[in-house]
Amino acid sequence: MDWCVPGCCTAERDISGPRTVSGPEQGSLTVQCPYASSWKTYNKWWCQGAGWSSCRILVQTSAEEQKVKRGRVSITDDQINFLIMVTMEDLRMSDADVYWCGIERTGIDLGVKVQVTIDPASTSVEETSFFTTVINVNVR
């Protein structure tokens, strides 16, 4: 896979995606990245890391495999609607990072940057009160 510096590789008409997405800790989130129909048969990928040239591919499709799941992350290449869909499950605070939706091609890959944020799980404290009843019994 070839890489490029950010900004030179994303042609807006070729692939796009949300700038930011968020999901709840211990929940899931789905990212949708539409792409041009001309990229239908190309491999699609999802990688993690702020640097385009150093991001780590977490999941990748191939022409034969249009849905791939690896660990808590899955990628689906919807070749009818020309849409890359990535789902991240069982979210952790450490999943907050920069990710890239991408299309593998000869030369420089296409990619779009997505900032993922994780909302902390709400911790509800259950208050339990214990009441003590005192009964005075006078015995004569």
UniProtKB/TrEMBL annotation:
* Topology of this chain in the membrane: Single-pass type I membrane protein
Instruction: Report the subcellular localization.
Output: Cell membrane
Keyword Oxidoreductase listed? The answer is no
GO biological process assignments: immune system process
Main location class: membrane
Whether Membrane counts among this entry's keywords is yes
Q: Which UniProt keywords apply?
A: Cell membrane, Disulfide bond, Immunity, Immunoglobulin domain, Membrane, Receptor, Signal, Transmembrane, Transmembrane helix
Q: Which InterPro entries match?
A: CD300_family_receptors, Ig-like_dom_sf, Ig-like_fold, Ig_sub, Ig_V-set
Give any GO molecular function from the UniProt entry: transmembrane signaling receptor activity
Q: Where is the Immunoglobulin domain?
A: 18-117
Organism superkingdom: Eukaryota
Q: Name one GO cellular component term.
A: plasma membrane
Q: Which family does it belong to?
A: Belongs to the CD300 family.
Name the chain's protein. CMRF35-like molecule 3
